[in-house]
């Protein structure tokens, strides 16, 4: 009787190349040889990118896998919690780059980097401590050394001093930088990684007869470990009355969202994509300007992704029920097409944070938005165990868990 392990290697590779990414876990459990082979090469990559969007979403302080089927807009979304240790740890921020996920724990005690394809994790301790107001990015330099950028505030300085530090996976160390800056990155803005570098939406402060704030695209170079020159956005960049967000398009382009709330009689939405982009230059072209359902974007948290072939944009935000009842709010995925197509999908009740005043009375209620890693997930063979630091946590934390889609 012929066993699967007896099959010719070229035949096995051909079989695995046709396996959908979502079925790799089942294939790995079938045969030890197939399991080892799938971890030395990436399979299912091309098929996945053509059929659906694979990504990750942070909901209810948990990391979930997300699959969006562009061929089936009737029931396009599938969201599942990932297994293992990440299902036991509360997460507040998630960043994606090169097939790796950087997750920030809710208690801000440490970071964890996860390779879903290999099922590896790496816990990263702070140089001193982390803070809830910190901003992060994940990238790599020209030698493919992966690094983490952390932006923080220098509480000891009265001047506008930019403070940031870079963690190097290879050396397992943090390096601290101080510089002056005429720009600022809003706390709600999340950097987007593209080809190893990270791009932020920032506010450039122009000093003149009066202080003006112009929104810019600000790159961070992980090779030089410094911020590059500001790049222009394709739409009016004055901050007041406008909302902007960026996302990644298959690690090849950036997409920029522009929402003008002050446009009468209804808000207008524009989505632009880059024709070319580098650390020193950028050019844009219009992708979509939907004429209907623009109000669905008004409660947007900033997370969205697009599919250029299908001419579809998916925005993640909230419904409006909490404005009427003040008791609950649903998280939604709003699908918008250029031809006026619109569909809103309820993806679950939004957790709420109750803020109290100094007397203990309820001051306000904030409903958490779903946060989506806008880059479509591409598997990676990056070994997180190389130069892995000695664990500073209990053994159960150093555990592997796998992609669950």
Protein traits:
single chain; 405 residues; mainly beta; Neuraminidase; 2 domains; 5-stranded antiparallel beta sheet; 4-stranded antiparallel beta sheet; 8% helix; 43% strand; globular; disordered C terminus
Question: What's the structural blueprint in terms of helices and strands?
Answer:
Blueprint: H1 9-17, H2 24-28, H3 32-38, H4 45-51, E1 52-59, E2 62-69, E3 77-81, E4 91-97, E5 100-105, E6 111-115, E7 120-124, E8 135-140, E9 146-152, E10 161-168, E11 173-180, E12 183-184, E13 192-194, E14 197-206, E15 212-221, E16 226-227, E17 242-249, E18 253-260, E19 268-277, E20 282-288, E21 303-307, E22 312-318, H5 321-325, E23 330-337, E24 342-349, E25 352-356, E26 362-367, E27 371-372
Antiparallel strand pairs: 1-2, 1-27, 2-3, 4-5, 5-6, 6-7, 8-9, 9-10, 10-11, 12-14, 13-14, 14-15, 15-16, 17-18, 18-19, 19-20, 21-22, 22-23, 23-24, 25-26
């Amino acid at each position: 009787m012929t066993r699967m392990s007896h099959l010719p290697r070229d035949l096995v590779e051909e079989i695995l190349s046709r396996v959908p990414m979502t079925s790799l876990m089942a294939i790995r459990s079938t045969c030890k040889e197939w399991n080892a082979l799938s971890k030395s090469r990436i399979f299912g990559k091309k098929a996945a990118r053509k059929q659906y969007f694979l990504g990750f979403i942070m909901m209810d302080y948990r990391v979930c896998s997300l699959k969006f089927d562009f061929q089936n807009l009737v029931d396009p979304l599938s969201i599942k919690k990932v297994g293992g240790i990440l299902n036991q740890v509360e997460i507040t921020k998630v960043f994606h780059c090169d097939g790796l996920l950087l997750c920030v724990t809710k208690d801000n005690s440490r970071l964890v980097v996860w390779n879903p394809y290999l099922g590896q994790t790496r816990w990263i301790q702070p140089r001193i401590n982390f803070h809830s107001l910190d901003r992060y990015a994940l990238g790599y330099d020209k030698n493919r050394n992966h690094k983490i950028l952390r932006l923080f505030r220098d509480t000891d300085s009265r001047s506008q001093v930019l403070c940031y530090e870079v963690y190097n996976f290879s050396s397992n160390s943090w390096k601290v930088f101080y510089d002056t800056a005429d720009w600022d990155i809003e706390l709600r803005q999340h950097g987007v990684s593209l080809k190893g570098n990270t791009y932020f939406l920032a506010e450039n402060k122009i000093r003149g007869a009066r202080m003006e704030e112009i929104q810019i695209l600000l790159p961070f170079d992980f090779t030089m470990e410094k911020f590059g020159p500001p790049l222009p956005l394709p739409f009016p960049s004055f901050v007041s009355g406008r909302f902007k967000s960026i996302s990644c398009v298959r690690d090849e382009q950036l997409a920029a969202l522009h929402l003008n709330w002050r446009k009468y009689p209804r808000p207008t939405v524009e989505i632009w994509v880059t024709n070319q982009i580098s650390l020193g230059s950028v050019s844009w072209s219009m992708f979509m300007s939907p004429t209907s359902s623009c109000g669905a974007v008004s409660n947007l948290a900033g997370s969205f992704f697009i599919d250029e072939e299908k001419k579809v944009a998916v925005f993640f935000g909230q419904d409006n029920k909490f404005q009427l009842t003040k008791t609950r709010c649903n998280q939604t995925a709003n699908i918008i097409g250029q031809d006026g197509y619109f569909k809103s999908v309820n993806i679950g009740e939004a957790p709420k944070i109750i803020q109290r005043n100094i007397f203990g009375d309820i001051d306000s209620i904030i409903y958490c938005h779903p946060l989506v890693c806008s880059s479509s997930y591409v598997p990676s063979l990056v070994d997180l165990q190389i130069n892995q630091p000695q664990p500073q946590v209990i053994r159960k934390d150093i555990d592997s868990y796998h992609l669950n889609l």
